[in-house]
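cache lookup: miss for this entity combination. No prior model stored, computing from scratch. Input as submitted by user K.M.:
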Amino acid sequence: MSVLRFPNPGSDISKMIFTYIAIFKELETKRNFTHDDARDAMIKYGLVSSSGAIGQEAVRRSVRDDRSRDSLYNQHKMYSEFYRMLGWYKPGTMNTNFNFTELSSYIAKAEQDYSKRIFEECLLSIVFPNPLVENKKGNIIRPFPFILRLASNLEGVIFRDELIVAVLALQNDTLVDIFEKTVTYIKDLRKNKRKLSAELKKLSQNTGIQTNTLQNYTRIPLGSLKYTGWFNRKTIRGIYSAAMTGFELTKNGQEKTKLLTMLKDIRHEEIENFDINERGSFTLLSSFVFMERCGYDITNFEPIIIDLTQKSNNLLNHLGIRHHSSIFYSPYQQATEEELNFAKELDSKYE
DNA sequence: ACCTCTCGAAGAACATCGCC
DNA sequence: GGCGATGTTCTTCGAGAGGT
């Protein structure tokens, strides 16, 4: 039994995006930038504080001999975990330095609306396992589509602690009937609040993780549900015995859920046995689909897309994909370095 | 080969505020 | 007045660098 862990740098998503753009602007040309480099960029824009101070004073107060106790260092460390999940950072030469992914320039240079759409797509594409973030626990899950689907099958509402016991604690979301089982599980919990609390406590005991900490894990997920406008946070009465803060699907969220049902959720494991020509072509193809879903016009690339579809034909058939628009796969978050390099080279040949 | 020590990743907790 | 959200700070642990 293990729990999917999200870092807890905060829950203000727009700030995290703004921070990313600031870091990108400062370090765009730097290869293998470190936590300290990024910290300096954050400081420059007044985006972090430490011990009640900002700017260089914050740096001064934050620095410890033991780096693991350095608060600003830790802040960026947690940001970096999330950016990696989103496919915005990729590992550099070491575990402690980073490079920007292809997406970075789109995010930083995009109009406000585009950066939000890119965030949404990346959020939906967060999936474990993946090559960017190690997850030692081994949970297999694409959490956000699962959450949307759950809510829409449960009176349009989901609660924080349900998210922990039913989603973060889920071991494998690809098992047959797992979705239906999870719905039933939550319906049963909803008979009374004590049952939910008991489940949370049980999970805490089984995993050795404090309930406090488990709740820390939900900050980014819940912040994201709000930021995207898929959910509203409000006091919900009538589901549990007492009134409780919950998250209610908006019209926006309902539409997104519906859209997702038409897509084929692809995990890297399903394609890893194909040869690199197929995988590389598919990687490039999926990047066009990804950008289109972010709102970019790709009609000019139609001939390339047709060619790539042919080149990855076996793979697409294997997945049961008839048209590229149903591909639900983020190359920035799921593809290996080998596949990305192949795709890049292929792309340059088309120009 | 084994030992030691450092450091970063991961994990946990504290502090405070606002709201029901 | 208690709960939840959030920003911030503190703790644990194991990998691996470097010494013997």
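stored under new cache key. Residues 8-12, 49-51, 68-69, 71, 74-75, 160, 215, 219, 222-223, 233, 245 of chain A lie near DNA strand C (CB under 10 Å from a C1').
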